[in-house]
Prior knowledge:
228 residues; TMEM86B-like; transmembrane helix
Amino acid sequence: MIPRPLPARALLASFLVLGAVHLAVQLLGPEAWSRPTQVLLMPVLALLVLAATERPRSRLVVLVLAALVFSWLGDALPALAEGDTAFLLMVAGFLVAQVVYVCAFWPYRAESVLHRRRWLLVPYAGAVAALMWVCVLHTGVLLVPVLLYGLVLGLMAVVSTGVNTWTAVGGALFLASDSLIALRSFVPGLDVPQGGFWVMATYLAAQALIVLGVLRRVRTPDLSRSAV
């Protein structure tokens, strides 16, 4: 769903260009450009949402904007620390973002795999369970936050299926992206070639598809579009 207003289309194009630049940095360097390009991406998506919607904005739109803000904090805050502290700052930002996404998508749960095509819950549950099983022996003091994050992330992916196909794919890609982070962070010797590139490629695609799916959904009035 391409947004109709011209400013929103310009912002979508800007996001795509910035995303391409950031992914090129992931592949080719220099590493010093990685964080500066990364921290610009979520603000551009948030501006896109603002440009594509009108006041009074629905509950869904407001919560998605909040999730993008906390995602930006997850991108930016790790630069202020090192080691486990940096990782915890990232997890904290994205944990809140995932909780907000769950709250945003929850009114649509009757249309999700929680109630329709329930057999699809099996791959979601299996993916989260397998990830936790592989990582749990290596998390150390981070066990509780990692387990909590995994459960919330899985729930977000599940309830995202209730909004529409765009958000469902976005939620699944978010699960894939964060699974790659967990495997790279906690499982010794387990990484994929150009892991940082694939983490960011799936993350950026996830956020963009969630945003575009939400913009498509709010164009169809329903009982969950209460204004704020």
